[in-house]
Amino acid sequence: MAFAAASAQEDTGREIINADKRPQDWLTYGRTYSEQRYSPLDSINERNVGQLKIAWYQDFDTNRGQEGTPLVVDGVLYATTNWSKVRAYKADTGELLWQYDPRVPGDTAVRGCCDTVNRGAAYWNGKIIIGTFDGRLVALNAKTGQPVWEVNTIPQDAQLGDVRSYIVDGAPRVAKGVVIIGNGGAEFGARGFVSGFDAETGKLRWRFFTVPAPDNKPDRAVSDGPLSTLAYKTWGPGNWVKSGGGGTVWDAITYDPQTDLVYIGVGNGSPWNYKLRSGGVGDNLFLGSIVALRPETGEYVWHFQETPQDQWDFTSTQQIMTADILLDGKPRHVVMHAPKNGFFYILDAKTGKFLSAKNYVDVNWAKGVDPQTGRPNTVPEALYSLTGKPWLSFPGDLGGHNWQPMAYSPKTGYVYIPAQQIPFNYVPGTDSNMKSKGLNLGLDMSKIGAPDDAKVKTHFAGLLKGWLIAWDPVKQAPAFTVDHQGPWNGGVLATAGNLVFQGLTNGLFNAYDARTGKQLWQIPLQSAVMAAPIAYAVNGKQYIAVEVGWGGIYPLLMGGMARTGGWTVNKSRLVVFSLDGDKQLPPVNKKGFLPVKPPHDFDAAQAKAGYAHYMDYCAACHGDNGESGGVLPDLRWSGAIRDPDAFYRVVGDGALTAYGMVGFKDAMTPQQIETIRQFLVGRAGATYDREVKARENQQQIPGQIIIGPDFSQGGVQ
Q1: How many structural domains is the chain composed of?
Q2: Is 313 tagged catalytic?
Q3: Residue 156 lies in a domain
């Protein structure tokens, strides 16, 4: 039996390594271990893509953010959805074969910053393996959907900080029979780590912590050595010993068979505020770094830190890609990376040696990087936690590139980056206490919002941008750029048909010429498209598939201003296309819910106090300044704000916990909760007429900006 299991593992890994021999399948998150998201299928190409139509679609039961990349194995498509659900369909007809609901408790929603999303599953030896939002890793029988094994990935006895706010929303990767998974939660309080589990049994094989434990205490983990000798000395005195320090590995995990290394992308510090976190001392390894490990043991091999002294939420958790390219006329096997900080990095895949970096979007926090070491030349004013002054940063906390996957075409030699510009104004806070609920960023949340000023709003809207950038990694320069209406657009697929596919926040799904960027095809899908498409084939017939659904941190926190990228009503589904498709989507209510006339009376003094509490505890989900971005309920139109008792039952007691809205009576007093209600009543009255009028012209989208040029005062008007 042991020999049979080992052979099966070896065969599955070999199939992924040789994925181009099975171009009809999509066997792992990025199709191949290289994470290039390039399909060799070319039946759909630049000559006939205009004939593409919907072959089939299936609605999901969670109208929230959909970020999943489906898998296709032997004619079956496996899709993961919000709340960590899994569905298996016949890939040619859309017939539902089975579905699995891990029944994630609703109260776990408060642990994550960025919606209860899921980005995908792994396939290995007849099993579909998924990470659940509450931190489990579950292996399902690929034919039946029945659980094979389940394990909690969050150790109960580890040194993880006082808050321990952990979630899993990234896709697992499997290498040499080891399932590798990280986690998120650093915005609230967490200590990052990545774990390797046996793919057949779920037994823990190894664990690597990304930041040291307080007092350099060992974890009895494979990371003890490098943390003790390399990382601990880069941390100063600060509340990282209470928060956990951050460094969660919430997305990027790439296995490279050529070097036999797993590259993990490490996230931001906890809290963001560098002075509060570490006394403004040290580079804080391994935050903002790529770390190379051995897949079977987790042994440390090398690291490269892209963002020392991180205080901007410049994670390195964005997709890590490997490729063979010519540099200085010589072939090099490299790692290519476009993290949040705005620079495109090329490293030697075997050694981690820095080869080059160039900004792919506008950057003002650093004046380039050192050409020898790759260390950014940070602008002194950008160190807001040390200067004590606000800093308007380009990129902002959502990065020049976020989780949305990029793609690489070996035919063109271009990396296609879903890039964006969303500036952020960092206003340092001074409170080092850790809240049990709510964001723990070390920022003055009462001052990062903006007054409801039309001039400021118009100015800021002009700064919100999105692009598809075809980046030439050899020249470290753009080959072409496609402008979009706004940021937070979808991931990218490149194909041998000389095509690049990408969906947009305005609900349009596009195909471009991979060589020039010319738009060749477009179809409206009714809701925003954030997920990356895939290509597959059944019986020689090619399909393109993509998940549809609006969500994630951008609309949750940005609120109404996020709708400037395009007004769509959230309707989540999976849509599949073919050249002979004959389906159409059903009609949809394009205006969404209409505002409800709010109560007239509110206490202005209480509302002013309520704004600060709202920004601390509510804005991360319900939007800046009380205005929703279209994912979760807009509290201005909630019936609960009309009655203090009803409002307290929801916000204090947690009457809607099963749906993800937990109670906050352990974090706020009844009086503080009432001030939030007063604030919402005031905001509803101030914006009601504008909201009604906006629905008469969907281009005039109401919204309250979260960031802008001057936030020294903040507050509401």
Answers
A1: 1
A2: yes
A3: no
